[in-house]
Amino acid sequence: MPQTRPPQRERWRLKGEEVILDNPILLFALCRYEVSRIRILIIGGAGFIGHNVALHLSSRGYDIVILDNLERASEWALERLEERGIRIIRGDVRDPIDLRGFDVIIHCAAYVDVEESFSKPSEYFSNNVVGTASIAKTTSDSDFILYI
């Protein structure tokens, strides 16, 4: 069986800090914009997946901002984000969002409890479908990179 090599990582220096680009979407953002530091907005960034993405990207040198309604965020996740100095803005995915100043938007805001979705279908539809459609519409007429 042939051995596979791990993927090569691009190394860049931004404001004197080394940033490892191991995500092709973020590499595209860096190439597309002449910015000194990539700013990433993570919508739903206080949830399980979102906060882990935020911590990972923050450790790679990216400037992370989180937008979350904090409705389902754990205290533990919020403490970890605070320790890293990651800014959290309280807001809802269904509300109008000012996306100016961000290079990449990562959408992680979703309700995921299957059992609960049967008892609260309109809440799940509003948050998961309407919220995602709102973000997609907001970013479709702009130069943002949206990752869902």
Question: If you had to describe this structure to a student in words, what would you say it looks like?
Answer:
The chain has 148 residues and is α/β, with parallel strands linked by helices. It has one domain (10-147): Rossmann fold (3-Layer(aba) Sandwich), CATH 3.40.50. Helix content is 38%, strand content 22%. It has helices at 24-32, 48-59, 75-83, 114-119, 121-140; strands at residues 10-14, 17-21, 39-43, 63-68, 87-90, 104-107, 145-147. The strands form two sheets. It has a five-stranded parallel beta sheet, with helices on both faces. The protein has a two-stranded antiparallel ribbon with strand order 1-2. Helix 2 packs parallel to helix 3. The protein starts with 9 loop residues before the first strand and ends with a strand.
Q: How would you summarize this macromolecular structure in one to three sentences?
A:
The chain is 38% helix and 22% strand. It is of the alpha/beta class and 148 residues long. Helix 2 (48-59) runs parallel beside helix 3.
